[in-house]
Amino acid sequence: MKVSIELGLSSQGAPAPVPMDLEELLATRLLVQGNSGSGKSHLLRRLLEQSAPWVQQAVIDPEGDFVSLAEKYGHVVVDASRNESDLHRIASRVRQHRVSVVLDMEGLDSEQQMRAAAAFLGGLFDAERDHWYPMLVVVDEAQLFAPAAGGEVSDETRKASLGAMTNLMCRGRKRGLAGVIATQRLAKLAKNVAAEASNFLMGRTFLDIDMARAADLLGMERRQAEMFRDLMAGHFVALGPALSRRPLPVKIGSVETGARSVTPKLLPLPDAPAENMQELIFTAAPDEDERLPPPPRRAPAPVPTENILSQLARATREAPVQAGPAAPTMSPEERQAAIDQALKEILSDPEAGFRTAAVLYQDFLVRCRIRKVAGEALSLRAFRRRLAIAHAGIDSGELEKEDSPWGEVISMAGQLPEDMQSVFLVLARAAHDGKPCPSDAGVAHAYGTRSLGRARRLLAYMEEQGAIVCRTDGRGQRIIAIPGLAWETAPGDPNAPHETVSRSEAAE
Question: Does 312 fall in a domain?
């Protein structure tokens, strides 16, 4: 069944009705753009009123402007000041029972609005397949929910809201969801959300970047973009398969419901003596506490970074006095043994090499607290160095020997980037012991990656830096030597699989 609604009248040539094909709109989505006061909300209200008898609707309403649809068209108003799980379940029931709703977000701050929209849109999107009925999803002020750049909200909230908007515009069609998004500025709207619309209604705008994007979307030349500055309120340029195959100026028709917020009108100031005005503003009315909301709480002033650092330094120097018997102190040998054992336990996990140093460091600190190692066991920088040494199977006893060559090897490793030092020490250990050269898989495991190509590039880089020398024997086996030490590995197959137990055995 083909259903068309009348959006307004053509303002080019003789006035003629401009129809909008609802079925085509459900398949192709709509983007509305215009500065504040250009008539975007009026356009959305016209679209919602005309299509209300034909298709289910959901309105994401950040300002509470569309709740008036409930009185005449039966929309159910959903208060967004609920927890996210409730909003998700309500949205699922909305699709199940085919109820038109308005999600009223008035009174919520920007982060709460983004969380509420993400939860509600997620419920519409995740509905069961049996409930994928056609639905028009109108999002006013879409730049709030799909921002082109990060703002004052947390990254988690922004990603959730942007993901929900992307699902609506990119994947919603197969689930019966047709996105209609309106924004004040195209430059503030995420491009991957705006790009999915095939129908456009462009209103008045003044900034060059927004005019240029509007002209590009409509397929107009850049010199024609100036026309968007001259559009009157309620006038838009339409283009798309549901509207017109060529850019068509249109004046939006009248509406039957009104918004609670109206365009400000000039009014004369009250004529009263200054003394009376002072009494009015400095004296509270008897019912003022009941009528007016409580004043917002002022956030505490931010503490300068240098003050925080000095407080942390004082807290470290001035350890609190603990009641009860003092913990037994460790000798340097016992402390070193406890730290070595914690490192061995970490390296015994075959997946340890694929975790970041920061995650492993937190695990190390916990293990040290379990062993009651007093004070800071190791700094993060020292931990990375010790981890690389332990990874290569070099124990503290070898390092403490007077004639130990490992001090020079560790100094050579220090000339490489931190993430490569562990690989160099593993190669040096194999060369010192005369063991077969580690395969590409073994080098990748030591580097913390599963990419064999990255392992080969790493060896090539280390050879360019003069840290190692690679050669291949007659059987295609790889041999790696450490320059200056006359250490050389035995021939090893570069394509051999890596034995994950070798790391924990090396730590012992």
Answer: no
